[in-house]
Design goal:
By secondary structure, the protein is an alpha+beta fold. Strands 2-3-1-4 form a four-stranded antiparallel beta sheet, covered by helices on one side. α1 crosses α3. The chain starts with 8 loop residues before the first helix and ends with a strand. GO terms for molecular function: guanyl-nucleotide exchange factor activity; translation elongation factor activity. Keywords: Elongation factor, Protein biosynthesis. InterPro entries: Arc1-like_N, eEF-1beta-like_sf, EF-1_beta_acid_region_euk, EF1B_bsu/dsu, EF1B_bsu/dsu_GNE, Glutathione-S-Trfase_C_sf, Transl_elong_EF1B/ribsomal_bS6, Transl_elong_EF1B_B/D_CS.
């Protein structure tokens, strides 16, 4: 309880009400709180209309200065805030806790936002990067029926085959015996677009020139 200004009747009246059922200002024995309250009265005894305050005053006055200095510490109502002032402090502490919790959530949200931005930036960068096209280098052995087959005409027919992802390359004639040569021709194909089996079938359709087609080499590039 705060008594207010003990040099006023209002302050003394509050002290009197406080001491109605108490012997001392703080606890069950005289303390420095009693000395400070006593001094706050300005060495002026409460009048008889405040009997409880007057009783207390005369009791504290009965002690010598040395005895008063030896009193233990006590809570001084003159310096103690009213009970109504305590809850706001606790409320502030609670608010601080809530703020800290909210701060953690905000930090988590910020970290998640940064992570999402980085993932998006990586995805955009990857999307802009040209996709790697799988290709193969193939060497085909195209064999004629006999030594009378026009090899130049054979090659001319083979090169007429067009497919998306097919590029014809260099060629040469390779002897196989008995005056017969085979056409060895190179091509590069995109694996996703050109079926090697289909390409072989297309070459074999030139039945007047082609007896068979073998794959002499097949390398991924």
């Amino acid at each position: 309880m705060a008594f207010g200004d003990l040099k006023t009747d209002k302050g003394v009246a509050e002290l009197n009400r406080f001491l109605e059922d108490k012997s001392y200002v703080s606890g069950y024995e005289p303390t420095k709180a009693d000395v400070e309250t006593f001094q706050a009265l300005g060495n002026k005894a409460p009048n008889a209309s405040y009997p409880h305050a007057l009783r207390w005053y005369n009791h504290i006055k009965s002690f010598s200065d040395a005895e008063r200095k030896s009193f233990g510490a006590g809570a001084n109502p003159l310096k103690t805030a009213a009970p109504t002032t305590a809850p706001p402090a606790a409320k502030d502490d609670d608010d601080d806790d809530v703020d800290l919790f909210a701060s953690d959530e905000e930090q988590d949200a910020e970290a998640e936002r940064i992570r999402e931005e980085r993932l998006k930036a990586y995805a955009d960068k990857k999307a802009k990067k040209p996709a790697l096209i799988a290709k193969s280098s193939i060497v085909l052995d195209v064999k004629p029926w006999d030594d009378e087959t026009d090899m130049k005409e054979m090659e001319k027919h083979v090169r007429t085959i067009e497919m998306e992802g097919l590029i014809w390359g260099a060629s040469k004639l390779v002897p196989v015996g008995y005056g017969i040569n085979k056409l060895q021709i190179m091509c590069v194909v995109e694996d996703d677009k050109v079926s090697v089996d289909l390409l072989v079938e297309e070459i074999q359709k030139f039945e007047d020139f082609v007896q068979s087609v073998d794959i002499a080499a097949f390398n991924k590039i």
